[in-house]
């Protein structure tokens, strides 16, 4: 198995764990972003932390986006004071539509050849979505998504892993 | 609340994001509420009827998680 296959498998497994923690049946693009941010020793990790976006900061931004989106229709998650449900150790989240799009965009970004894929392409695949939870969360966190995309492209041009 | 006072997000992106967030909240709420009911001794048919789904559906979705969490479940009737 190639290094990029190992990386993608690790991100998908960690993404599934993030989805499970969320109680989500699907791995979505924001779960991939959390997984990418948690995986040290790669260009995407350096790019994200360099922009002040560690896993914790991204998790906080996603929580804010959730609350903000609910507030738009007058709902507050704290209106339902039920205890947190027990996690489901048997749940195996499958890739959702947004994760599929992120992977497609990553492949497109590297010219459609899987052998040319590098971790930063995966980050690019997540970041280049202009619609959805990830761009909304990053905007609410005050992150400059366009600048982060530009730095990711520079990193790829520089041959970083 | 009268219909004219219901909050309507003016931006379609906000309205669509609200749909996504409400679905997520509903899933979490269902997990928590079913667990609370089963811990309180409700039966599968009663929980299913309250949710408006079949007992097979509610059992399939929640039984393994609740068993793993150590919840004592009433036998299905």
Structural account:
The complex is a heterodimer of chains A (161) and B (77). With 161 residues, chain A is mostly helical. Chain A has one domain: Double Clp-N motif (Orthogonal Bundle), CATH 1.10.1780. Helices cover 61% and strands 2% of the residues of chain A. A two-stranded parallel ribbon of chain A has the order 1-2. The relative contact order of chain A is 0.18. In chain B, 17% of the residues are buried. Chain B is elongated, with a radius of gyration of 17 Å. The longest helix of chain B is centred in the first third of the chain and has 28 residues, at 12-39. The model of chain B has no long low-confidence stretch (mean pLDDT 89). Chain B has a domain at 43-77. Classes of the chains: A mainly alpha (161), B mainly alpha (77). At the A-B interface, α4 of A face α1 and α3 of B. Chain B: It comes from Bailinhaonella thermotolerans. Chain B: This is Helix-turn-helix domain-containing protein. Chain A: This is Clp protease. Chain A: One of its GO terms (molecular function) is peptidase activity. Chain A: Keywords: Hydrolase, Protease.
Note the main attributes of this structure.
heterodimer; A: 161 residues; mainly alpha; Double Clp-N motif; two-stranded parallel ribbon; B: 77 residues; 3 helices
Please work out how many helical segments of chain A DSSP would assign. Answer: 8
Secondary-structure-based class of chain B equals mainly alpha
Write the H/E string of chain B, N to C: HHH
- Oligomeric state: heterodimer
Largest sheet of chain B: none
Q: List the total number of helices of chain B.
A: 3
- Largest beta-sheet details of chain A: 2 strands, parallel
Amount of beta strand of chain B: under 5%
Protein name (chain B): Helix-turn-helix domain-containing protein
Organism (chain B): Bailinhaonella thermotolerans
Organism (chain A): Bailinhaonella thermotolerans
Protein name (chain A): Clp protease
């Amino acid at each position: 198995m190639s290094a990029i296959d190992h990386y993608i498998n690790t991100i998908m497994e960690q993404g599934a764990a993030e989805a499970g923690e969320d109680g989500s049946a699907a791995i979505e693009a924001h779960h991939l972003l959390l997984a990418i941010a948690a995986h040290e020793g790669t260009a995407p990790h350096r790019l994200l932390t360099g922009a002040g976006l560690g896993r914790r900061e991204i998790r906080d931004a996603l929580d804010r986006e959730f609350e903000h989106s609910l507030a738009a229709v007058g709902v507050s998650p704290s209106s339902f004071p039920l205890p947190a449900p027990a996690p489901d150790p048997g749940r195996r989240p499958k890739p959702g539509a947004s994760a599929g799009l992120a992977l497609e965009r990553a492949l497109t970004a590297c010219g459609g050849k899987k052998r040319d894929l590098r971790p930063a392409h995966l980050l690019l695949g997540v970041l280049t979505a202009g619609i959805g939870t990830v761009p909304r969360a990053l905007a609410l966190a005050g992150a400059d998504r366009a600048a982060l995309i530009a730095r990711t492209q520079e990193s790829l041009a520089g041959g970083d892993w | 609340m009268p219909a004219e006072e219901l909050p309507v997000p003016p931006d379609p992106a906000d309205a669509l994001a609200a749909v996504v967030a409400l679905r997520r909240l509903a899933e979490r709420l269902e997990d928590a509420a079913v667990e609370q009911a089963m811990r309180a001794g409700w039966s599968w048919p009663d929980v299913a009827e309250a949710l408006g789904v079949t007992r097979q559906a509610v059992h399939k979705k929640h039984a393994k998680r609740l068993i793993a969490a150590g919840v004592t479940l009433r036998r299905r009737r």
